[in-house]
């Protein structure tokens, strides 16, 4: 089991549960499906996405490496009165494929945080039933990705205490406010990271992170019997720090 990522998200998601209404709005804009048999929330974290999937699916299986995140997810299921979600404490790199098959696999901003993202993606493909669909959000590789990685390594090495994390978050919050004011724009809020502090910690403090091009992920799925397309190419406050979303349907 990936203990470093487990430890990070044991601390992170219980502190930064996203807003249900905003998350649901985003998911309904992203998903074409409205009625499902079985769905997998791969890396469920806070559990809000699991709750929303459970409103469309007969059964949701929610998997996460973080036990404290799973506790938070169970609280959300109880809060919204959802009893069709089964939670499993597993590393997606070691996913029990007997949990499948699934009509829909939702893996938003998770696979690239594992030590071996390709192993995660292969497991997601394996548990998708013929005709089923994977929604996969990954970090986009840009020319500034090495700079962001340098900042992440610096933050983890020298700024990784609660007080110093707040200092880093405050710096980027101020920088964002100034940049938005100069452009005459409002600060972009995201459903998954409701504050800039949350965005900064999720971006600069995880133990692992891998960036990908859209083309290589589309090609990966198509080599493995899927029809894949990019449905959202930039989701984020900065063009150099963003996620893209792939929808891939397994050939029947």
TrEMBL record:
Limits of the Methyltransferase domain: 38-140
Keywords: Methyltransferase, S-adenosyl-L-methionine, Transferase
InterPro entries: Methyltranfer_dom (IPR025714), SAM-dependent_MTases_sf (IPR029063)
CDD domains: AdoMet_MTases
Keyword S-adenosyl-L-methionine listed: yes
Highest taxon, organism lineage: Bacteria
Gene Ontology annotations of biological process type: methylation
GO molecular function, one term: methyltransferase activity
Name under which the protein is recorded: Methyltransferase domain-containing protein
Organism: Azospirillum oryzae
Phylogenetic placement of the source organism: Bacteria, Pseudomonadati, Pseudomonadota, Alphaproteobacteria, Rhodospirillales
């Amino acid at each position: 089991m990936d203990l470093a990522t487990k430890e990070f998200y044991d601390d992170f998601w219980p502190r930064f549960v996203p807003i249900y209404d905003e998350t649901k709005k985003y998911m309904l804009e992203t998903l074409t499906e409205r009625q499902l048999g079985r769905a997998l929330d791969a890396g469920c974290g806070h559990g809000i996405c699991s709750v929303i999937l459970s409103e469309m699916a007969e059964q949701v299986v929610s998997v996460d490496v973080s036990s404290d995140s799973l506790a938070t997810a169970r609280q959300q299921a109880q809060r919204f009165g959802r009893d069709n979600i089964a939670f499993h404490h597993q590393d997606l790199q070691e996913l029990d494929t007997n949990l499948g098959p699934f009509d829909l696999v939702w893996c938003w901003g998770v696979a690239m945080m594992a030590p071996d993202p390709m192993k995660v993606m292969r497991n997601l493909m394996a548990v998708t039933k013929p005709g089923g669909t994977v929604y996969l959000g990954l970090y986009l590789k840009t020319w500034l990705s090495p700079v962001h990685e340098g900042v992440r390594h610096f933050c983890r090495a020298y700024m990784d205490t609660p007080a110093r994390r707040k200092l880093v978050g405050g710096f980027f919050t101020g920088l964002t406010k100034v940049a938005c004011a100069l452009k005459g724009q409002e600060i972009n809020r995201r459903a998954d990271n409701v504050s800039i502090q949350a965005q900064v910690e999720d971006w600069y403090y995880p133990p692992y992170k891998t960036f990908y091009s859209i083309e290589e992920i589309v090609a990966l799925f198509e080599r493995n019997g899927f029809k894949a397309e990019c449905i959202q190419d930039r989701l984020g406050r900065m063009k150099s720090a963003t996620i893209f979303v792939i929808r891939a349907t397994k050939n029947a």
